[in-house]
Amino acid sequence: MKKKVTFENNRGFRLVANIAGLKKGIIQPVVIFAHGLNSSKDSPRNLFIAEGLMEKGICCFLLDFTGHGESEGGTSDVTVEQFVQDLGASLNYINQIKSIDPFRIGICGSSIGGTAALVRATTDSRIKALALRSAPVEGYHPYASQVRIPALIVQGDADPILKESLILYEHLAGEKKLVLIKGADHLYSKEEHLKEAREAISKWFVEKLCPEYPELRIFKDRRDGGVQLASRLKDYKDREGVLVLALPRGGVVTGYQVASYLNRPLDVIIIRKLGFPGQPELAIGAISEMGTIFLNKSLISVYGVPEEYIEGEISSQKVVIERRVILYRKGQGLPDLKGKIILLVDDGAATGATMKVAISTLKVEGIEKLIVALPVAPPETAEELRRMADELICLETPDDFMAVGSYYQDFAQVTDEDVVEILERLKLKKNAKVN
User: Which of 48, 82, 232, 413 to pair with 421, CA 20 to 30 A apart?
Assistant: First the structure.
């Protein structure tokens, strides 16, 4: 079902949009499509992607920006800033449609429309998820640090703006994912490239906007993950010689819940990923504060990651580790771990690189027992960690694992300030009990 609608923007121009895939009798999520320069709501690429979303039960709102398609406005009115205002007018209109869920709205922006979507997402809390397809954001990178919602970047590696997208990805502050499509140009001229883009975008919005898919929504947030883990660790409640060690930053939120419930002290073990070139969330290895290094040799070999890049990444992560030791523990090293039972906690694991380094680091410290506790990990990673640790508690091991954040309804970024506050909070809580 497709319906044409009209409404006004902030300047009184009449805007035209098509609403497609709206069903009667149910409340649906919606994705707004923000097209590129000299395109329109009838963009064949956007229509193709929209079809993939509609197959998943997601309604699509395909807009003509000011000065494009059937919408009013002239060439002089065509700016990123005006497109940002047009997206606001679209959101206002959508909020009046009773069969669209106002808490499940996403934007799929392509080219300059993606730039406008990025800017709008920094200030408009109605937007819950973002997908940017080949968005030229030169000059707009600072906006990325203000985006706190899940953001996907789909980018062809044959597109001249590839470098801009990689810089944008680095700047994004919240949950994020980068999908590079090999050989794709700016317009995704080849059908196979556009199909890859559609698959990535559809999967992303299903994850972020469709709670009716319960397998993608296991935990409310990191606190919930910690509470559920704590219930599996109750044998260690009030037990002397037990220490909860969390991997910062997200793992500290989870670890706090575990430590609070068990009435045991909480500290951090600082591990840093060694990120893949241009894709830092993909770990090619990790390094610990004690200097232990793990390298994913198969990944490094398959993609030919240069040795000099790895050495440079190790050096830069050592600097970060030193800064965090000062920030989190006032420059002090880990407490004496000899003879302790360690509960090693994180908010989840994908490749498990950081967790593997943590395990290797702790094993030479003369500890009595090491229990790794995670809310979620893929089966193969869980099995590796099970072999390395004395015990593994992993609440969920989905076969179709995507990313740790996919299994949380709220996976907002945790800051250094958050970590310091949580560590201080537990100390104060313990001191209050003693007094």
Answer: 232
CB 207 within 8 A of CB 216: yes
Number of compact structural domains in the chain: 2
Sheet arrangement for strand 293-295 = 271-276, 279-288, 293-295
* Domain termination site, one of 194, 212, 230: 212
Return the SS3 of 133.
strand
Do 182 and 96 fall within a single domain?
yes
137 lies in the same domain as 184: yes
Q: How far apart are CA 237 and CA 406, in angstroms?
A: 30
Q: Which of 212, 243, 270 is the last residue of a domain?
A: 212
pTM score, whole prediction: 0.52
> Which residue range is the domain that position 229 belongs to?
222-434
Residue 217, in any domain of the structure: no
Tell me: the pLDDT tens digits for 125-142? 899 999 999 988 778 888
**Which range among 147-151, 279-283, 304-308 shows the weakest confidence by mean pLDDT?**
279-283
Q: What is the CATH number of the domain that holds 321?
A: 3.40.50.2020
Predicted confidence (pLDDT) per residue in 350-382, tens digit: 888 889 989 988 988 899 999 999 999 999 999
CATH of the domain at 152: 3.40.50.1820
Instruction: Collapse the DSSP code of 24 into the 3-class scheme (helix H, G, I; strand E, B; otherwise coil) and give the result.
Output: coil
Check if the beta carbon of residue 343 is closer than 8 Å to that of residue 258.
yes
HEC sequence for 284-341 = EEEEECCCCEEECHHHHHHHCCCHHHHHHHHHHHHHHHHHHHHHHHCCCCCCCCCCCE
Element (H, E) at 80: helix 80-94
The answer to whether the CB of 343 falls within 8 A of the CB of 263 is no
How far apart are the C-alpha atoms of 323 and 342, rounded to whole Å? Answer: 24
Task: Name the DSSP letter for residue 413.
Answer: P
CA distances from residue 431 to 197, 253, 425, 428 in whole angstroms, order as listed: 54, 20, 10, 5
The phi and psi torsions of 289 (rounded to 5 degrees) equal: -65, -20
